[in-house]
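For concreteness, we quote verbatim a single protein encoded this way:
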Amino acid sequence: MDHKPVEGFSKLTKQGKIDWLVSEYLEGKEEYQNILKQYWNENADLQKLHEEFSENTISNFYMPYGIAPNFLIDGKLFALPMAVEESSVVAAASKAAKFWIDKGGFKTTIINNEKLGHTHFIFNVEPHKLLHFFNFNLKKKLFETTEAITSNMRNRGGGILDIKLVDKTAEMPNYYQLKASFDTVDSMGANFINSCLEQFGKTLKQEIATSEDFTQEEKNSLQIVMNILSNFTPDCLVRAEVSCKIEDLKDDSGISNEEFARKFKQAVTIAEIEPFRATTHNKGIMNGVDAVVIATGNDFRATEACAHAYAARDGQYRSLTHCTIDNGIFRFWIDLPISVGVVGGLTNLHPLVKFSLALLGKPSAQGLMSILAVSGLAQNFGALRSLVTTGIQKGHMKMHLLNILNQMGATEEEKQHFVTYFKDKTVSHHEVINEFNRLRAQ
């Protein structure tokens, strides 16, 4: 089918957008109209709120919103909200939380909370000349010209922490950066940081234009390329950990505590040295992190990008978690760079986000960092525990069973039959189909 480009799509009404899509791409079938409309919220005001989160919105896309209880974090008990569609994520996190609750739970430490942004510019000038200008003139002006922007943030205890000139000319001709670090307190701070950086760009241009330190030819060479925050925040870092005596590990898989600890540590070490394994290993960690990030209205794309960049910070992609066995003590931890907020954005608008934050006791941004690191560590512990004992498929496929049965149109009675049937068996797609056909043939 040949499709035609559309003019003014964003100006069409919601129904107009749907009518055009169904007519142009979906052969005019009414069923597709119905699919979109059945996900509209009956509350018109709430539906309008959701539509205004983004552009060209025609419906809502639901994800399961589940709860992982029994998380003992720094002496306090939490139930974690998790928005995730993948089978077994919530179950694995819950199981890990229950495993550690009588062993002291999870301990967390905020290592640092600095966020970063850059003004990227091109300037054909000797580096030492620019550095002198930065140290004795520009740096002070950058702070001064952003005072109006940073006033409210400074009143809350945050603001611009430092500004540095970075010489990148060895990697790209005439390329420099103004690298700034920020404390945005309880907000994620993207708009604040970008506003400061855009003012940096203006100030840089003005100060160089009026300076007597540079020739006219040098002044004419200045190009402000862009002013933008970085989602790589290696100094916005939280550590979460668990530990206990090996004799207290008490895994119920049938292997000894010592063998469990040894195999677990080997699995983590493999992820530390083998990028193919580390990628799947860290994906599992982010299953736990992202589910809570989404439930609390934060940017899971930013948290993913930052975590994976951090995992490759020494030039090889590695595990985000680590494990040691020393003097009979098993210790497992994660250092997670993550920038999140609990004010601003969706946190003040989305009803379920507000519910999630209330459920978590209305944490500070640092408190949420701790919770997210724990969620990732718990998910990784649950996955590795399965991998080194019963294998990942036994638990995962049991959780996936209902998805398979729903695809096959099973009745509630048939679903209950399968839950009983696989109580002491490993679920496989092939076996589900065989048993389903046998059941229907009776």
